[in-house]
Amino acid sequence: MTRKATLRQVAEHAGVAIGTASAVFADKQWVSSRVRDAVRQAADELGYEPRQKRPEPAPVTDVAFISWAGEAFSPANPYFAAVLHGAQQACADLGISLHYEVADPARGGLPQAVERGQVSGLLLLSYASDSEYLERIVERGVPCVLLEHEPIALPVDHVRHDDELGGYLAGKHLLSLAKSPRMPGVITADENITPARARLAGFRRALDEANVAFDPRYVLRGTFDVASGLRCMNALLDLDVPPRAVFCANDESALGALEAARARGLDVPGDVAVMGFDDVPLAARAEPPLTTIATDKHLIGVQAVRHLLDRVGNPAMTSRDTRLAVRLVQRASTRG
Question: Where are the transmembrane segments (predicted)?
Fold first, then answer.
């Protein structure tokens, strides 16, 4: 079997340095036409075939930020706004345009950015899983990063907060107040909403460690907004034995819970302690200031953009599940 000619052999045959021969095949402009002709003639005579240059990936100039309709996502939502701002800032730093669009899987149509082939990739913020819809997007060859979404068996990346740990920290904190051996109340959201499910699971782990019985009567499900937080808090306070502490699975629900407690003339935290999750700006300005689990909402948007650029450049790469750390921020709403 005849061995293929090497670049070194071509250089020697042409009477030039190997670096000069390499520059010829790399189309460097500083090589004289005489040397260029000599190297190419040597290559032809030896049957040398230069390596084909790997095509450079197309530059990323446009990406879309997609949120699902009907999931309390809008730029007015304090959590959503911070995530979107992080993504916008990361794109601006990289010279990338960011488009925003609301998608409704129930209506069947894919996002317009996908249908029109307008963008290099998608950032998808969705609390609830719709694997079939996501699979249709991926089948169109659009690189995707999912925010706040449970891992799914598709070639996409995930960026989310460690919600289970946050729920656990919340449970440990409220149980440490020792106001009552009973289970604290919980105001959460539908089971199909990934962060709500994970936060409740972490909370239950804290109950199990403390040997406190789980009582489903103390778990009420709202819609992650102030109005449902107020409604659920009133329902908890109307129980024959109301809780002495309440964990709200997001801060907006907790703001509603504080409003309900104030309307009844209850002291927070003297009569009932209240805490939230996310540490939105209003949490520190609540009356009283709200104990909460802090999440880095800005960073989740930034990290999603970074992951998306990696995936655009290497679509076949292994999927990644990145979870950002959370921490307890104690304020007056639980401090006796």
Answer: none
Tokens of 185: 């109340």
Structure letter (DSSP) for residue 110: P
pLDDT tens per residue across span 28-85: 777 888 888 898 898 888 888 876 655 555 567 789 888 876 655 566 678 888 999 9
User: Quick one: tokens of 99?
Assistant: 């488009």
CA distances 144 to 69, 73, 78, 131, 132, Å, are: 18, 19, 24, 13, 14
Domain boundaries, the chain: 7-46, 62-161+297-325, 163-295
Q: What is the pLDDT of residues 169-210, one digit of tens each?
A: 999 999 999 766 789 999 999 888 889 999 999 999 999 999
Scan for tokens 């609390």, then name that residue: 127
Beta bridge pairs of residue 185: 246
Rounded Cα distance between 316 and 300, Å, is 23
Enter the CATH code of domain 62-161+297-325.
3.40.50.2300
**Residue whose structure tokens are 């030039």:** 16
Residue with token string 């990644």: 320
Cβ-based neighbour number of residue 285 at 10 Å: 10
For 163-295, the fitting CATH number among 3.40.50.2300, 3.30.200.20, 2.60.40.290, 1.10.287.3510 is 3.40.50.2300
